[in-house]
Hints:
Blueprint: H1 10-38, E1 45-49, H2 50-56, H3 62-71, E2 74-78, H4 82-96, E3 106-109
Parallel strand pairs: 1-2, 2-3
Helix pairs in contact: 1-3
Amino acid sequence: MPRPFFQGDPVEIARVIKDSVKQSLKSFHEEARHSLISTPERKLALIIDGRCLMYALDPTLRVDLLGLSLICHSVVCCRVSPLQKAQVNNISCSTTYLLPREELTTILLLVRNTQRPEKESM
């Protein structure tokens, strides 16, 4: 399936994408809260890729990202840059001093270009 092609002002396009990420973070957070209220033993995971993470790490959205990640059992960041890994690490480390240890989120950082091993031909 071809990727959508956006035309227009790049700043406006970035603003629209950022607004979309913000809305998604808020709706996923609300959905996760309701899920945990109805089934407290459920373990949730947040999986986010580098492109979405680029917008979620914006200073105006970090609180939303942190809020969602803290109610998840684990957070998986896929295809991220070294700078994004450092930013996610900074967010999680700053949380260490604010929350009891049992409430911290496990963060798994995956290598940027992880590929599946190729199957051997017979």
